[in-house]
Design brief:
single chain; two-stranded antiparallel ribbon; 7-stranded mixed β-sheet; 11 helices; alpha/beta; Rossmann fold
């Protein structure tokens, strides 16, 4: 059953749905969304089991596409451009492939329509292993995560999901469901031969990231024959945070139809 997704809305004009990656939320995209809102009605969604959206047992991409479609229709939107990062990029791609008339343009950020290695499963398990008892500040949780996740930037991203209220700490993420469904999250659904999205599509990759490999371009062009692939220098997987101006210039022009 589809769930109604929480979303922050900005601006007016042709609609653009922003879909975050694993461990993220719509608020991670606030800065980009506000810039795009100068020309568009932007909806930065929280996907199921993330942010302020409801928790659910399943995490298949077909379920997440159903959530997205129901949530757009409940806001009076029958079709929109899609901008999805990582896991959200897979949701956006599948929505375009299954329901092409409902997707005006497609932007996929640093992910390909192929299975990924389950490397981030270690992060899920690290978060679940943190003893949250007695934590009153994020810095305390940061110390407890440091051994399992040495990179402070990655810990900072993950710790945005920690809620501390009335002296108690808990995760916004449904970590149990994410761990249980992780094989679906790193996969990409098999589709009937001949399935394509034949509208304008932009893949934006980080030059320092391995999420879109040269070998993946064959699959990308088979499913998205009108796709362009752009690599942004100085960026890894979180392009919108690492090179926001270059990312925004690339994406804004594409979404407006001028590039």
């Amino acid at each position: 059953m589809a769930v109604q997704l929480a979303a922050a809305e900005y601006g007016d004009g042709s609609p653009v749905a922003i879909l975050h990656g694993l461990f993220g939320s719509g608020r991670n995209w606030q800065s980009i969304a506000r810039q795009l809102a100068k020309r568009h009605r932007v909806l930065a969604f929280d996907l199921r089991n993330h942010g302020a959206s409801p928790w659910a047992d399943g995490m298949s991409y077909r379920e997440m596409v159903d959530d997205l479609r129901a949530s757009l229709r409940s806001r009076g939107i029958e079709h929109a451009a899609m901008l999805g990062h990582s896991m959200g990029g897979k949701v956006a791609m599948l929505a375009a492939l299954l329901h092409p008339a409902e997707v005006d343009r497609l932007v996929v950020v640093d992910i390909a329509p192929v299975p990924n290695p389950p490397t981030l499963l270690a992060y899920v398990r690290a978060l679940r292993a943190v003893d949250l008892r007695g934590i009153t500040r994020r810095s305390e949780a940061d110390v407890r995560l440091a051994r399992a996740i040495p990179d402070p930037k990655e810990r900072g991203l993950l710790l945005q999901n920690l809620v501390i209220a009335e002296g108690k700490a808990h995760w916004r993420l449904n970590l149990e469901a994410i761990e249980r469904e992780f094989s679906h999250i790193v996969d990409f659904p098999q589709l009937p031969v001949g399935t394509v999205f034949n509208r304008s599509t932009l893949f934006v990759a980080g030059a320092n990231s391995a999420y879109i490999r040269l070998a993946d371009e064959v699959t990308i062009t088979r499913l998205f024959p009108r796709a362009r692939i752009i690599r942004i220098e100085g960026a890894g997987h979180w392009i919108h945070a690492e090179q926001p101006q270059s990312f925004l210039q690339t994406v804004a022009g594409f979404l407006s139809g001028s590039a």
